[in-house]
């Protein structure tokens, strides 16, 4: 019987290597891979994950914000890093840490050229974001002329890649829209390359794009969730392994008499003599309160223990009436037999939100590093 001492998040780098190889195998030969390690590596441990991927020969990293890029550089990562969503105040840090900004609007592009010139840069690598339908960040077709004019006027920056993002690559019912987005991106890329006079790398696919749209792999793909073991489709999920394993421990077991209640606001009432176990993880740790009152469960010795009553800030209680267990026994909240999708679906959300919501107060334990 497995014992435990506290709540931990194990980061299984062997699972990461497996997922990386699986995704590589889905690509056309020669396609580059940009590993998305934003949001602390989807809630895992960004430096350990990035080091492992760098060892596997990943071509690029992507983060959302400059601070995340600095964390990687401080951790010794030397691979090129794309910052998906930089702000003007960050440009000095971007240049001093050799981070590569996504330029997505006239305001950002003009300001970055100014900074690159001020810091004496030549052909500083930047990435142009094209809005092919998400309407989140990016320039559009009518921006082409002023962009090319500004680029031709300065030697300070060079467009290393042109990229766009699919709106619904995981959604089969939006296939037509995705195909239109791919066409729109291709057509802009053709016009842009012609006007620019050189050829940047092209990329448009996230994990589900890799799986569902081989025609959109272009020169590089950007994979996040797939590396961490999820791919927005049950068949693909089965090919992947969860990197983040969330484990806890039974702190205390109570015998609950009929009509006694468990937890805040007396949300659970025992029907018979029952047994509850208290687990040291709560909504402040990223377990949604919506998983209370039977919506979610955990695994104890491989058996389902439903959450009873309301999830507290630092604890939750589960029904272990049917499970032979004792205080100090291990509890699996996310793992191979209870992937994040079980809880995310029960909480009416997606694996991304559940994983990135696992609080930083839970200790990360790195397992199976290759060196
Ligand atoms: C987060 C993000 C990705 C990664 O998407 P996954 O679905 O996790 O593979 C790729 N591209 C952009 C622009 C993103 O913001």
What ligands can be seen in this structure?
Answer: pyridoxal-5'-phosphate
Shape, per Cα inertia axes: elongated
Alpha carbon gap, first and last residue: 30 Å
CATH uppermost class of the largest domain: Alpha Beta
C-alpha-based Rg, rounded: 24 Å
CATH architecture of the largest domain: Alpha-Beta Barrel
Low-pLDDT ranges: none
Q: SS-based structural class?
A: alpha/beta
Number of strands: 19
Strand order of the largest sheet: 8-7-6-5-4-3-2-9
How is the quaternary structure best described?
single chain
* Fraction of helical residues: 25-40%
How would you describe the overall organization of this protein?
It is a single chain. By secondary structure, this protein is α/β, with parallel strands linked by helices. The protein folds into two domains: 31-224, TIM Barrel (Alpha-Beta Barrel); 244-367, Beta Barrel (Lyase, Ornithine Decarboxylase, Chain A, domain 1), CATH 2.40.37. Helix content is 31%, strand content 23%. It contains twelve helices and 19 strands. The chain has helices at 13-25, 38-43, 46-55, 66-74, 91-96, 106-118, 144-153, 175-196, 207-212, 234-239, 340-346, 351-356, and strands at residues 8-12, 32-36, 60-63, 81-83, 100-103, 124-129, 157-163, 201-203, 220-223, 244-249, 252-256, 261-262, 268-269, 274-279, 297-300, 303-308, 316-319, 330-334, 363-367. It has an eight-stranded parallel sheet. A hairpin with a 7-residue loop joins strand 16 and strand 17. Helix 1 packs across helix 3 (46-55) and helix 7 (144-153) packs parallel to helix 8 (175-196). The mean pLDDT is 97. The site of pyridoxal-5'-phosphate has 11 residues, from strand 9.
